[in-house]
Amino acid sequence: MTTAERTAPPDALSVPAGRAPGCPFDPAPGITEAARTAPLTKATLWDGSSCWLVTGHQDVRTVLGDPRFSADALRPGFPFLSAGGREVVGSRPTFIRMDDPQHARLRRMLTADFMVKKVEAMRPEVQRLADGLLDRMTSGRTSADLVTEFALPLPSLVICLLLGVPYEDHAFFQERSGILLSLRSTSAEVRAAQDELLAYLTGLARAKREKPDDAIVSRLVARGELSDEEIATMGRLLLVAGHETTANMTALSTLALLRTPDQLARLRAEPALIKGAVEELLRYLTIVHNGVPRIATEDVVLGDRTIRAGEGLLCMINSANRDAEVFPDGDALDVTRDARRHVAFGFGVHQCLGQPLARVELQIAVETLIRRLPDLRLAVPYEEIPFRGDMAIYGVHSLPVAW
User: Fold this and answer.
1) Confidence label for 35 from pLDDT (cuts 50, 70 and 90)
2) Full-model pTM
3) What is the CATH number of domain 4-402?
């Protein structure tokens, strides 16, 4: 198959706002078409610049695993999905938008907090939080919005606990996170939200100097290697990513299972399938619908095409996770599938630091919901559910359910 020379329209890069045409769990039609046409397709971005779409599973892994494709968002030509997205990076990128050795130095400061053994030890506490949220949600009621009552507060409570952020401030950081992740936010809106969030976290770091605890922010302060402002930048990444991603996966996973009652029944009948089912849900849903950006630092041959130094790429991990050569019948949800080769958390040295925590939260959230609410169902017509096609993290804005 040869590389496509055509240019994809900007709206091919994301699901339109509201309910997507076709199945809203699938990659946007433009991405699906690009994947069928060629493994590499030129696309036009919002600002008129162009980049390569990388859609195949092996090519995505190759790009994300090759240091010649840089994650440094300050390099000229780096592909951004919106003006707001470009503003988020500004002059203070987080370590996921840096290359080694800077990336490795900062990431190592957090590695111990997200190791599998430590996260697994948190299961009882996460389970307690999940049960408490469901107790409150179901007390004296037969319907609720699953997003606001369960999917969002569960990971928010957990990340606040890990960081040492007071949960009573969750409305403040969730509102600003929403602005930072919206593809429609202006540069001014993003700048204001980011400044407010960083000011809050800088103040938190200063407070931890006076009254330390055993949470991440306090331990970063105690290391003495970072300024309060640098700690705030790192905290911003963990706070935003630590609740938005898992919250949307929880709600979207619930909806996907409600839409495939045979798969839901299989899970209820065989709870031992939960861990593998979560991997399949991660593959099938892949909530990063707009691609993982990279930029070539030198000329690199990829397939039958030479990617020139300075050219941007978007690794479409949602398309890669539907690659039929790796996942036969990949457009179907199959909770018995071995989906461990998915790239929902990325690949290579930049793959998601928090994936062990995300797995534990999702396993507990899904298992608890289907066990405790055997009559769980949608409370509104499926067509009325508002999908997050306007956000960098895909999902649903709300999910009214009944039981």
Assistant:
1) confident
2) 0.93
3) 1.10.630.10
